[in-house]
Amino acid sequence: MDGLGPEWVGLSVTMPGKRAALARADLSTERAVAVGSANTLVRLPDGRWRADCTDIDGVTGALRERGWPAPAPAGRC
Questions:
Q1: Sign of CA dihedral 39, 53, 7, 26
Q2: What letter would DSSP give residue 38?
Q3: pTM of the model
Q4: Residue pair 51/27 in contact by the 8 Å Cβ criterion
Q5: 3-state DSSP assignment of residue 40
Q6: Among 10, 28, 51, 69, which one is most buried in terms of CB atoms within 10 A?
Q7: Intra-chain end-to-end CA distance of the chain, in Å
Q8: According to the model, what pLDDT value does residue 77 have?
């Protein structure tokens, strides 16, 4: 990521790079930390990278489209 020019404002990360993306990011959302991986990296205006995990939104959105109820929040282990 260090060699990417300023035109790179974000990255979509697939396996097996999701844990590495979380480890490499300068900042991380709470849900990325809770899940332990990141599939989205966004370059912030100051040049740092923020990691997020949008997989959760995708899965819950797909389930809702099929009529499944919204899942209850998971507890911590």
A1: negative
A2: -
A3: 0.76
A4: yes
A5: strand
A6: 51
A7: 33
A8: 43
